[in-house]
Amino acid sequence: MTGLRRWIGALGLLAAMVGERVHAQAGLNAFSSTGRAAATTFVTDYQAIGINPANLGWKWRHQGKHVAFGLLEGTYSVHSDALTRDDMYHRVLNADFKFTEAEQEEAGRIFANAGAMANADLMALGFCYANEKAGGFAFQVRDRVQVSTRLGPRMAQILFEGYRADYFDLLVLATGDTIANYANMSPDSLAMVILGVATQPQLIGRVVNGTKIGLTWYREMNFSYGRHLVRNEAIELDLGIGLKYLQGVGIMDIRAENDRLTGFSSLSPDFQIDYQNAEWMPGAQLTGGMIAFPKTVGQGFGVDVGLAMLIQESWKVGVAVTDLGAIHWKGNVYEASDGNLVELAATGLENFDIITGLEDFATNSGVLKWERAQDKRIPLASTARIGAGKLLGEWAEVGVDMVLPLNDEAGNLESPVVGAGGDVRPVRWFQLSAGLLAGGGMSLKFPVGITFIAGNGIWEAGFASRDLITFFTQTNPTLSLSMGFLRFRF
Predict the structure, then answer these.
(1) Whole domain around residue 465: which residue ranges?
(2) Cα–Cα dist 188/307, whole Å
(3) Which residue among 61, 95, 109, 472 is least crowded, i.e. fewest CB within 10 A of its CB?
(4) In total, how many domains does the chain have?
(5) In whole angstroms, what is the distance from residue 117 CA to residue 209 CA?
């Protein structure tokens, strides 16, 4: 048996390891695409992998180049509809910040029916060879980490207030005495409390109804091919396919819906969880070596298919379906069972520090019961993409995108995402990208990006943000960074 908070702590630590807490982001993971809010009709060479493999058949804008090669391109982001921008900077990132009792109660209120989404996407290696007759061959190795949390009202209250939540009507003191749980308890009395007890216990699924916590981390090795089927002065039609081998590092899917709780978990031994006692091993932490070469607990395969069209060498249309397939999770497989929530020995989070706050909170008494289970095949978070664009000579390109989730698997979009944007190149060595993005459970976003180009495309480097608005407003902040400095063409 272990606490729900222990598992939330694992999510938080993993997200903190890569810089943020996480959720799916419509495939805008290449630094050159993040800033424009659209990708389906823009991406080429190895950056088309996972978005639309048919684009591998297109001619490159930089003529005379046949090989594209990239290393260590990364995109990281965090979004919360509960916190403000100042909360992010001054509370979440400030390890010295501590809640007062009133602030704990306020945190529980603002996280009711709210949460956090985050994403970490690191491409270790990308390669593409393109030939006008043979088409484009591309290979990519990429790690995808996605975490999402949405808390029901009672779950948010218990998470931040612990046994002070009004669900627990009795409090057990260190002396062994039992008193009623009441508001405005003195600090001296509160310091004596060791346990909260509910005299009218309910099923956990009912108590935390509306809560959803998801984690996926897998390594993807994708080989993709795209080639034109028709090419003449009026139209070019390209078809592409991507085949991917997947190594599962970790998955967790906890849901409390319709007053019923379900939970599934399969985590790498690198998480260093003592499954005999259902607790983290003393001093457990994810090291750089574990991140670079993680021990896997699942394997699977996936497919991407796409169609692209270029009309009169000006108008572009693209359609793709990505992540068709599944991962077979075989190691450290556990399932959570529902049961009555009778008592809790947790004081509640002291701050918004994901690493120390949740980890310390997780060391107290547990909530969920986890039991060994059979291996399980879990579908990938599949999506469909539709895009259209227009080339405006050599100096600009605009386009629109729609990305639709095809299932409700952990790590997928909450709802369809629509984006519109483009690139402007006032000079050959500089590209400015901008756009508007809406949907996916987030408010309107204004991504921007800058790319530097040297030697007619021989070398590219740049960075982008998923939301410029965050720097000027307080609500619905999205902190993000997409960057790449080792992208070459020959």
Answers:
(1) 4-489
(2) 68
(3) 472
(4) 1
(5) 19
